[in-house]
Amino acid sequence: MTTVPQTHLERRYAALGLLLIAPTVLVFCVVIVYPLISAVYLSLFSIFTPTLQGEWVGLSNYQALLSTGEFWTSLGNNVIWTVGTLVLQIVFGVAMALVLHENLWFRALARSLILFPYFVSTVVAVLVWKWLFNDLYGILNHLMIVAGLIEFPLDHLGSMPNAMISVIIVGAWKYFPFVVIAVLARLQTIPEQLYEAARIDGAGPFARFWDITLPQLREVLVVIVLLRAIWDFKEFDLIFLLTGGGPIIGTQTLPLLVYKEAFALNRMGMAAAYAVVMMALMLAFMLIYIRQTRRRES
Amino acid sequence: MTGMNANGFSTTRRGALTGLAATAAVVALPKRASAQDTTLRWWSPQSAPAQVAAYKAQIAAFEAANPGVKVLFETTSDEGYAPQLAAAFASGEVPDIVTHLPSFAVQTYYANGLIEPFDSVIEAVGADDYYPGANDVYRAADGHFCGTGIGNTAANMIWMRRDLMADSGIDAIPRTWDELRAAVSAMQKGGVYGLPLPYGRNSMTSLIFIGFIHQAGGQIFTPDLQIDLDNEGTRNALEFYREMRDYSPPGATNYSWGESLTAFVSGATATGIYAGRVLVNVNTQNPPIADHVTCDTYPTISAEVATWTFNDFPSVFIPAQSQNKETAKAFAASLFNPEGYIQQLHAAPGHVLPVLRSINENPLYQDNPIIQKYPNEVELMANAAAGGFNLGYETTEHASNAKAGEIIASNVISDMVGRVILNGDNVDEALSAASATIEEIMAS
């Protein structure tokens, strides 16, 4: 195989190309590659957070974390939280999007209001929910007692499985508007003729949803599930503020464990190891999910 | 190379560079001008509105006496200061002065070279004016003081309501656990719970339970700091704490300081466990019970075991990375000037108690409606706090424990409480796991 020598002009164009792409590569390296390599590098040290001084320990951090029950419990909690809240977000989100797609007289107002939970600050949302859940003054317990459902107040955030259920519900409430907006946008682009043809063929509402709406929503739902799964998996503030990971470590997910290692136990190296493992888990999930989705599409 | 935009304005590379340099110079100008000024950042977790107002008055007085110096007050929290300071130390973006953190946290930071020695500030305040031994808890291994107390707090007093005691036929404040059990059992009725003990995964549960261990005659460490968590006192404390769960509100599994305080002040519980802030809170938030409230040191397992008051010895210290150490030291000393200090103490009367004898004797300090209304309670708390301890200073015989802050921040004690009481785990296993974790922290 012979190579054709490049002309002076071609070399200059190639150099110009490199020059033009350089800023993007530089930014990518600074904001993605450097932190990634730093995290992996830090995870090989035992580091005292306040001083950032430490010593090389190799893979000991990984060995230690994989052998602790706390890691596996937190991973299990992470999966329960992510799957639980994601399923509720999708179910409520799609259902609400279908309602808001109908010709209702308050549709414009409802479409605006539905975004409220998503826009409100997590701190404010958690404070409100903590008051709702409060054992002594919370409206939730009060209504349940008045309705005769319970005799004594329920401990919503301090006992299991109530705490995990409460966290999942608050998470679903906070983030389902994202699903509503994305699905609603897609619903508006489904051709009406498809529904008319289905009606002529005698398809009922359920059949129309199952055979037309859902297949049409598949692409957008794939993206929603991917994005929300990533965001929910690394959710920190909502869980930390609601339960702090308790009772004991009943709602402690991996991000809370990273925080605890880094700033409560001052073990930055170990925290970095947890973060790297988290990243690897998310990467594995994404690859499997994308591959499965493509296989199903083909 | 020349560029031309739609308006016909053209730039050359040299022109652009000149412009950039000029912009940079302009941006740098205010910095140069402001370099003559000093801004001190002050962190504290004690930030009730009245306290912040008192701090502002102290700041204003200092700024007036030191032109060019500005002091910026920033709030942290009892549960959040450890991670916030860890991040601050790691990034170098430290506050110039920190107040009201427990003494054991200060010892931890000093042991790692993160704190400035404080001897000169203590001298400036007047070492002889402190109560005897008030600064012992701040003496570091190298003989220097790593900080000083800005106040004393008796954090685990038992709070009682005389009206409820009378209704239940209880004529004296419980002094032993048997009496406490009988009292809360009698007073838990009509929607009122017995006590607001914390069972949450937080520092309050850890700190309060350490008190229970000592009130049962146990300890966490031996005087030479060998781990001694697995002892009869701890086991008895776990058993009693488990019994008391039946007399606590359901949500106590998530209680920290705020929730526990509110439970008593609102009247949801018949007894309370807190510091002197109860006094001002009942008077402002629930006046009908204000005349019935009183306190004592927390009961012990038996009359033979001495009481053990938890005093976090609210501190003042200066991070070593501060760029304004001398100014910060001057400001730290100014916090003890009688007028401002008394105003600060009056912001939470009975809660933060004076560390200087001259202040306690000052008529201005005594001239406060809460202190005058509850003289016995305030006096009792002052004495209890003066003889108080914490994990960094378990008894007068114990060596100072520089790892106490990390042990509390790790939640290892509250996790142990949760495992045994909420999960029903085996006590031996829970004690063994907690001891192993503490050992790991001590060795780190």
Provide structural commentary:
- The complex is a heterodimer of chains A (298) and B (444).
- Chain A is mainly alpha-helical and 298 residues long.
- Chain A folds into two domains: 8-56, no CATH class; 69-125 and 151-297, MetI-like fold.
- In chain A, 73% of the residues lie in helices and 3% in strands.
- Chain A contains 13 helices and two strands.
- Chain A has helices at 8-42, 60-67, 69-101, 107-113, 116-119, 122-133, 139-146, 162-187, 192-200, 205-233, 237-242, 254-264, 268-297; strands at 45-48, 53-56.
- Chain A has a two-stranded antiparallel ribbon with strand order 1-2.
- In chain A, helix 1 (8-42) crosses helix 13 and helix 3 packs antiparallel against helix 10.
- The model of chain A has no long low-confidence stretch (mean pLDDT 91).
- Chain B is of the alpha+beta class and 444 residues long.
- Chain B folds into two domains: 38-153 and 312-386, D-Maltodextrin-Binding Protein, domain 2; 157-310 and 410-443, D-Maltodextrin-Binding Protein, domain 2 (3-Layer(aba) Sandwich), CATH 3.40.190.10.
- Chain B is 48% helix and 9% strand.
- Chain B is built from 21 helices and ten strands.
- In chain B, the strands form three sheets. Chain B has a five-stranded mixed β-sheet with strand order 4-3-5-10-6, with helices on one face. A three-stranded antiparallel β-sheet of chain B has the order 8-7-9.
- The relative contact order of chain B is 0.17.
- Mean pLDDT of chain B is 89; it is low at 1-14 and 16-35.
- At the A-B interface, helix 12 of A face helix 3 and helix 20 of B.
